[in-house]
Amino acid sequence: MSGLMMATALAGTTLLAGCSSSGSDAGATTADGKSVLKVEVFDRGNSPAGATINSNYLTKLVNERFGASNNIEVQYVPIPRSEELQKLNVLMASGGDVPDIVFTYDQGTFNRYAEQGGLTDVTDLLNQYGPDLKKFLGDDTLAYGQLEGKQFAIPGKRSVLGKYASYIRQDWLDKLNLPTPQTTDELYTTLKAFKDKDPGGVGASVIPFGMTIAPAQYEPLLWSFIQQPLTDEQKYTLLQKLGSRDYPVLLPGFKEGLQYMNKLYNEGLISKDFSLDEDKKQLGQDVQNGKVGFFTEDAGNPYYAGGMYENLQTNEKNAVLTPTDVFTNNEGKHIKPEYASNGLYIMIPKSSTKSVEAIKYLNWMASDKNLFDMQNGVEGENYTLQDGIPVVKPDATDEALNRLYNYGDMAIIANGKIVGTEEQNNEAYIKQMPEKYQKDMAKSVEISNTDTFPPVNFSVPIEAEAKYGSALQDKFDQLIVKTTMVSPDQFDATYESLLKDYMSSGGQAILDERTKVYQEGNIAK
Known about the structure:
Layout: H1 3-9, H2 15-19, E1 35-43, H3 57-70, E2 72-80, H4 84-94, E3 102-104, H5 107-115, H6 123-129, H7 131-142, E4 146-147, E5 150-151, E6 154-158, E7 164-169, H8 170-176, H9 184-197, E8 207-210, H10 215-224, H11 232-238, E9 240-242, E10 245-247, H12 254-266, H13 281-288, E11 292-298, H14 308-315, E12 321-324, E13 336-337, E14 342-347, H15 355-365, H16 370-376, E15 383-386, E16 389-392, H17 398-403, H18 407-410, E17 414-415, H19 422-431, H20 438-448, E18 452-453, H21 463-485, H22 491-519
Parallel strand pairs: 1-2, 6-17, 8-11, 13-18
Antiparallel strand pairs: 3-14, 4-5, 6-14, 7-11, 7-12, 9-10, 15-16
Helix pairs in contact: 1-4, 1-21, 5-21, 7-15, 10-12, 11-22, 12-21, 13-14, 19-20, 21-22
């Protein structure tokens, strides 16, 4: 059973079995009398030699700085990242050895746990033991973890809100004496030229527009077709939130966006096997091998050391990627979604007897330089400071780099490096990259923050989204894939059939509930 299917299967009252139990090791202590605090950690299978996911530089730092002074031993419970929803649901439903701190990115999962009584209300605990944590997160971010005025999760704080930018092979443009496209129509002309004239000498393998079934590739295109301006009623009622992401499936223009993808596919302008590339690995390989002329991506992804741009230039020394903002809507703007200010939903299961220790741990992370050191390592070995911004040392040793291999999964109160203000965070984001790419990275960050569409939230949970979200995500993916790949003369019939199936599988229930909640005035302020 897949993780999404398991999440759906466990969405009912079985969760409460875990809530009424005190756990198999409630009140556990070590041989030397230390209280044991168990914390979930994502396991991505990338631990360097000499380290494990629950024994490494950062686990030791935590226990030396936090554990020793509080008579607590923090133990980390690995959860495979690719199976996190499945494993978390099993733990929460079993009444067994669930960690004292768990987390998810999925808003529907958080809402379900809270509504079913599976989580500790940390409102008073946060006031008593979390002053630094509250100050660090702020009221806007904390609100994402509240239900009916009670704090049931500690939301992680995102360092940057911009998501996407587009990238084009500048050397291909130069060879064809073409300008950088500035609109959707100009992009189409460029893609046709890439296919017909093959400026990279790729031959039949040329991919004018690299596409996958991951949001970073299709969202910038589809959102640009949504007709603006939208009324508040349209935003609140016609969007469908699946997991933590708003989907414009019912908004005016969405069908036209799919039809444009269908046009590109049938003219051989996007990746032929995009529907199989869920993890973007094939796209990465195609970009690095010089086959792709244009693609969209999370703003920082091409620029990491040893990443797709550096590997592309290793394979083709004259290759140049230019960040650009191409897709235009009916108002001439480059609309694209942005992140919510929260990252993870950090939760303390009701069965835990270590809620005080858990809040103290999270508060410690937000105190002094603890978060900074977890994210950046040792000054002079991992980074240098430039105007207060940590800059990764280009000559850092492997030992130094290995200290931080999983800092993003350990420093859970933050999503991305947080230095201070939004401008400082963006600057830190840029300076994570090799110096030779920082100018392009700065442009990518600027693009990702231009003409953005913020998340739309209600002040009460939409129960139908938690109930149907997992299944509907699969339906949405099918809607994109099948309408894109069908012959143009079959597009309308395919679209109508798949949309009908989507709506009858929970989409209509979400629409009805969102409409009711909107009419009752329960929108986020």
